[in-house]
From TrEMBL:
Gene3D superfamilies xref list: MFS general substrate transporter like domains
Protein name per UniProt: Major facilitator superfamily (MFS) profile domain-containing protein
One GO CC term, this protein: plasma membrane
Topology relative to the membrane: Multi-pass membrane protein
């Protein structure tokens, strides 16, 4: 469970998009012709999408099992991330999938954390000898 949670966080939105965007600002600017302001503005839109998504995910985590949130969230996060690469280099079209990357990415970290904590509370200490 802990290994799976680590893998999920390694390929989640924080490491795949939000934390690494600073490395790719100049290549994105050169490739698309966007200004640096547009590229970092798309990052801000993703952060707003994540803030909105976290409010919704917080309530869903309390009602449903983690897998019912994680599977659709990772699938839709992956599709949104792929759409960023498929969008034409028009700023308005680039911002829309960035919002969804943040929005659906919000459904990845919180359910993983809850699943690991729940697993550790119920079975972890007995298996580790504590």
């Amino acid at each position: 469970m802990v290994f799976g949670g680590g893998v999920a966080n390694a390929v989640g939105p924080n490491t795949m998009f939000l934390a690494t965007l600073g490395l790719f600002v100049l290549p994105i600017v050169e490739e698309t012709g966007f200004s640096r302001t547009t590229v970092t503005g798309a990052y801000s839109v993703a952060a707003v999408g994540m803030a909105i998504g976290l409010v919704i995910v917080g309530q869903l985590v309390d009602r449903f099992a983690a897998r019912y949130i994680l599977v659709p969230a990772f699938l839709l996060f992956s599709v949104s991330l792929a759409l960023i690469g498929l969008m034409p280099p028009i700023a308005q079209f680039h911002v829309i999938p960035c919002f969804f990357v943040g929005f659906f990415g919000a459904g990845t970290a919180v359910p993983v954390a809850r699943a690991v904590v729940t697993w550790f509370d119920t079975t972890g200490p007995s298996q580790s000898g504590w």
